[in-house]
Amino acid sequence: MESLALYIHWPFCLSKCPYCDFNSHVREKIPRDRIVAALRTELAFEAARIGARKLTSIFFGGGTPSLMAPEDVAALIADAKRLFTPATDIEVTLEANPTSVEAGRFAGYAAAGVNRVSIGVQSFDDEVLKFLGREHSADQARAAIELARENFLRLSFDLIYARPGQTEQNWRAELATALDLAADHLSLYQLTIEPGTKFATLYARGAFALPDEDLAARLYDATAEAAAEYGMHAYEISNYARPGRESRHNLAYWRYQDYAGIGPGAHGRLTLGGQLYATSRHRAPEAWAGLVETNGTGITAETPVNAEDRAREALLMGLRLAEGIDVSVFQQRTGVPLLDAVDQSVMRDCVDEGYLTIGPTHLAATAEGRKRLDALLPVLAK
Ligand SMILES: C[S@@+](CC[C@H](N)C(=O)[O-])C[C@H]1O[C@@H](n2cnc3c(N)ncnc32)[C@H](O)[C@@H]1O
Ligand code: SF4
Q1: Contact 81/114 with Cβ under 8 angstroms?
Q2: 189 lines ligand 2 (CB under 6 A)
Q3: How far is the CA of 160 from the centre of ligand 2 (A)?
Q4: Orientation angle between helical segments 373-380 and 307-318, nearest 10 degrees
Q5: Which of 10, 13, 59, 121 to mutate to test the pocket of ligand 2 (most atoms within 8 A of CB)?
Q6: Residue 59: partners with Cβ closer than 8 Å, 6 or more residues away
C-alpha cells in the first residue's frame, strides 16, 4: 500500500511575528467551530478520492496549532486514523508556542494521540525574544520544554540564529543551552528577511543589519559542530537529530513522497490515478472555509506535475538531505533518470570542488554544498 503523510494547517496566531511570512492570521475571536468542521470535511474529501493509503505521519502546523482545543486535535486524529490505514509507528507532531497557556494543553494533546511536539522557542535571550516579537519569555520556553518532556516521547524545538549583532561566541553559548535542553531533535534556522514582512520594511530602512556571508557561514559551521558533539547529526540543512529521530513527516517532503495538505493555504503533492498533482488551497481562513462548505474542499488549483517539474522538485528537495537522493527511487518517482535531470558538466565540477558526491546509489550535497544550495541548484538542474 502506498504511503501518505498528512499536513493539517491551523492558520491563527496570537500576534504576527515581524519576520514570519507563513499563512497566519490574527483574529479577535477565532471561528473555531467553523474551521474545525471545515478541516474535518476536507479530510474526508481527500480520503474519499485518495483511497487506501498507509498513513505514516500527521503534522499539525501553522500558524499556531497549540491554540487548538485538544478535543479538536483528537477528533482530527481519530478521523485520519479511521479514513486511512495508520502505520503502527505513526508519527503525530504538533507545533506549539511556549506560552504557559499553550503548554498547559500538552497533556490534552498527548491524550489526543500527539506523540511529538515541535516548540517555537526561537531564542533563550529575553531581549532577542522581544526583538523577534514573541509573546513568551526564555523562562516560559524552558518550562514548556520541561513539560513537553513529561508528556511526549519525542520533542523538537526551533531557534533562529544569524540575528543582528550576533557573534560566534554568543551563538555558541546559546546553542550550548539549547543542546543541554534538547531531547532528540532541533530545527536551527538562520534568520531570513521575507518579502512583505515587517522586518523587510525595517531592514530596507536600515533599522538593523544582518551578519555578513562569512560570519553566517561560520555560525552555520559552529552549529553543526556543536550539535555533533551532542550526538545530533545535520540530516537536513536546518535540522539536527539523533540517529533514528529525524522528523518522519518532513522526510516525506524531502524524499519527495506523496503528502496531502488540508486547511487554508496548505499544499499537497498527490498521486491520483497514476499521475502526480500539485494542489493548493485558498489562503484566507474564512474564504477557504466558505469553499469547503460549498464544494467539500478549499482547493483552488490542482495541476498535473510534468516529468521536468517532478525531476526539478525532487532534486531541490533531495539535495537538502545529508543522505542525498537515491538514484533508483528518483527515477521511479519522477520517470526521469537522475543523470538526465542535471547538467553533467556542472555536476562534475561540483564533485571536483567538493560540493557534491556521487556514488553507485546516491547523489548528495556535501556540508559545503548544502551551505550553497541556493546558488548551486539553478546551475545544476537542467
Ligand atoms: C510555522 S513557523 C512557527 C510555528 C509556531 N507558530 C511558532 O511560532 O513557534 C516554523 C518555524 O519557522 C521559523 N521561521 C519562520 N520565519 C522565519 C524566518 N523569517 N527566518 C528564520 N526562521 C523562520 C521559526 O523558527 C518558526 O518556529
Ligand atoms: S512565527 Fe509562529 S507565532 Fe509567529 S506569526 Fe509565524 S506562525 Fe505565528
Answers
A1: no
A2: no
A3: 12
A4: 150
A5: 13
A6: 5, 6, 7, 8, 92, 93, 94, 95, 249, 250
Q: Ligand 1: residues within 6 Å at CB? A: 19-20, 22, 61-62, 64, 95, 97, 120, 122, 158, 160, 189, 191-192, 194
Question: Distance between CA atoms of 24 and 10, rounded to whole angstroms?
Answer: 8
Q: Is the CB of 132 under 6 A from ligand 2?
A: no
pLDDT digits (tens, 9 = 90+) for 368-379: 999 999 999 999
Which of the ligands is closest to the CA of residue 25? 2
Cell numbers at residue 42, please?
476536507
Task: Report the C-alpha gap between 3 and 259 in whole angstroms.
Answer: 9
Looking at residue 117, its pLDDT comes to 97
Beta carbon of 17 within 6 Å of any ligand 2 atom: yes
Report which of residues 97 and 382 the model is more confident about. Answer: 97
Whether residue 100 is predicted with pLDDT greater than 80 in this model: the reply is no
Closest ligand to the CA of 163? 1
Task: Kindly give the distance from the C-alpha atom of residue 94 to the centroid of ligand 1, in angstroms, as a whole number.
Answer: 14
Residue identified by cell 544550495 is: 373
Q: Give the whole-angstrom CA distance, residue 89 versus residue 154.
A: 13
Dist. CA 20 → ligand 1 center (Å): 6
The single residue listed with the C-alpha cell 467539500 is 296
pTM of the model: 0.97
CA distance 147 to 144: 5
Q: Measure 315 CA to ligand 1 centroid, in angstroms.
A: 24
Q: Give the pLDDT mean for 103-131.
A: 96
Contact 153, 114 (CB under 8 A): no
The predicted-structure confidence for 167-217, as pLDDT tens digits, reads as follows 999 999 999 999 999 989 999 999 999 999 999 999 999 999 999 999 999
Alpha-carbon distance of 237 to 170, in angstroms, equals 21
Instruction: List the one residue out of 283, 301, 293, 291 whose CA is nearest residue 63.
Output: 283
Tally of CB atoms within 10 A around 232 = 22
pLDDT at 242: 97
Looking at ligand 1, which residue's alpha carbon is closest to its atom 6? 64
Give the atom of ligand 1 at the shortest distance from the alpha carbon of 97: 9
